[in-house]
Design brief:
This is (S)-3-amino-2-methylpropionate transaminase. The protein has about 475 residues and is of the alpha/beta class. It is built from 15 helices and 17 strands. The protein has two domains: about 170 residues, Aspartate Aminotransferase, domain 1 (Alpha-Beta Complex); about 260 residues, Type I PLP-dependent aspartate aminotransferase-like (Major domain) (Aspartate Aminotransferase, domain 2, 3-Layer(aba) Sandwich). Helix 4 runs parallel beside helix 11. The radius of gyration is 22 Å and the shape is globular.
Length: about 475
């Protein structure tokens, strides 16, 4: 069975001949800007394993960049989509009501940890659309023009979300950007000012937010502050809870809405259904949550949830769209959430995370190139540096690790503002045997790419 198989390369080279032919066709037909550095042409996939057109099997630690929390081609989701397809593919929600949309909204309203007793949810097609709609809602409710985002943030590739996204490699040559988007410094604790104690760092980063108020926009003109509970593209950096609590206090003081971008962190990825459940445990809740990625196991769908008074402030016609809440996607999402709850995938995510971090910590003691390990549940970043003392980012090493791992059947991906972090987003249905095999391949790549030599004298101690 493919879903329990281990990675295995059977061709002399990777990509194999069939995959290489398709990749060559891709190079001729697709814009080069849609880059892919992986030697994989998928034929079919189950769980956390991809089999390519040459019969090579790859273990996926990327999970469609957070889309495949319940794995590839889950049979129950396939059945749900097929059953819906037998009825109808599409129903424009402004024209006909379909129950799947309503049922999914009701389900999310019962789950999302946003402020308020009565909640409302509507749907879009992508994470970027969800974030853009959240900003529209915040502006409608507050009647204010500006928003604040953070260093390291990634929110999408539409014109507005490109301006919200920090890394301008995602927006090269696309300006001018919309006015009214201002940036504060995110609490990247590993790279806080040298010598600063962690307990002092929270105040430091909160002061950076006040500087944004002073230099860019008075808080009375700010509609929302948009933050990822755990930054994705920025380097898998969790927002410290004490900082989040201070953020919530500032928002309440000035009448600013707090938007949590859970596009990548939602749906069991962090050990909870939503990462903001950790906030709720600490007495903090966002006003709006955006979701996408694993919501529908790979069928395009995103969602925006907020309390009743916020949602009902939006003028008619401002939100919605032709494909938003497509019936096939809603059917997939309802079944996906059912599986996540029934199979305790949030708990499984926490178990996976403990195992990965334990192994990473062992590596950190052995290899001077590992600077930091961080994350929540099964959403983990490992940061590579040239040495621990300087903390100088080593993106070259990370690129080499990605290439080397792929040659042995493991797919890993970078993240971080310097491209020196490897993200862990393996499907939560990965088996323990597969996880161990993947970690072994990863460590072997570290050894090869750093020319690491085992200390035989140390290895023989106690022998």
């Amino acid at each position: 069975m493919l879903k329990t198989a281990l990675p295995k390369i059977i061709t002399e080279t990777v990509p194999g001949p069939k995959a290489a032919a398709v990749i060559n066709r891709r190079d001729e037909a697709i814009p080069a800007a849609i880059r892919c550095g992986y030697p994989v042409v998928i034929d079919h996939a189950e769980g956390a394993i991809i089999e390519d057109v040459d019969g090579n099997r790859f273990l996926d630690f990327i999970g469609g960049v957070g889309v495949l929390n319940i794995g590839f081609s889950h049979p129950e989701v396939i059945a749900a989509v097929k059953a819906q397809a037998d009825k109808y593919f599409h129903g424009m929600f402004n024209v006909v009501t379909h129950e799947g949309y309503v049922a999914l909204a009701e389900k999310l309203n019962s789950l999302v940890p946003v402020k308020g007793d009565k909640k409302r949810t509507f749907f879009a097609n992508s994470g970027a659309e969800a974030d853009e709609n959240a900003v529209k809602i915040a502006k409608a409710f507050t009647k204010r023009p500006n928003i604040i985002v953070f260093s390291g943030a990634f929110h999408g590739r539409t014109l507005l979300t490109m301006s919200m996204t920090a890394k301008k490699a995602y927006a090269k040559g696309m300006g001018p950007f919309p006015d009214g988007v201002y940036r504060a410094e995110f609490p990247y604790l590993y790279r806080r000012p040298a010598g600063m104690p962690i307990e002092a760092a929270i105040d430091y980063y909160i002061e950076k937010l006040h500087e944004t108020f002073n230099n860019c926009s008075d808080p009375q003109h700010v509609a929302a502050i948009v933050v990822e509970p755990l930054q994705g593209e920025g380097g898998f950096i969790p927002a410290p809870i004490e900082w989040v609590k201070a953020l919530r206090k500032i928002c309440d003081q000035y009448g600013i809405l707090l938007i949590a971008d859970e596009v990548q962190s939602g749906f069991c990825r962090t050990g909870r259904m939503f990462a903001t459940e950790y906030w709720k445990d600490a007495g903090v809740q966002p006003d709006i949550i955006t979701m996408a990625k694993s919501i529908a196991a790979g069928v395009p769908l995103s969602a925006i949830s907020a309390r009743d008074e916020i949602m009902q402030s939006v003028p008619g016609g401002v939100i919605g769209g032709t494909y938003c809440g497509n019936p096939l996607a809603c059917a997939a999402a309802l079944k996906t959430i059912e599986i996540m709850q029934r199979d305790n995938l949030a708990q499984r995510s926490a178990e996976i995370g403990k195992k990965v971090i334990s192994r990473y910590n062992e590596w950190m003691q052995k290899y001077d190139v590992i600077g930091d390990i961080r994350g929540l549940g099964g959403m983990i970043g490992i940061e590579f540096v040239k040495d621990k003392e300087s903390k100088q980012p080593d993106s070259t090493l990370v690129n080499n690790l990605i290439k080397e791992a792929a040659q042995h059947g493991l797919l890993i991906e970078n993240a971080g503002i310097h491209g020196n972090v490897i993200r862990f987003l393996a499907p939560l249905v990965i088996t323990d045997e597969q996880l161990d095999a993947g970690l072994d391949i990863f460590e072997a790549a570290i050894k090869k790419c750093t020319n690491y030599q085992e200390d035989s004298s140390a290895a023989n101690i106690g022998a």
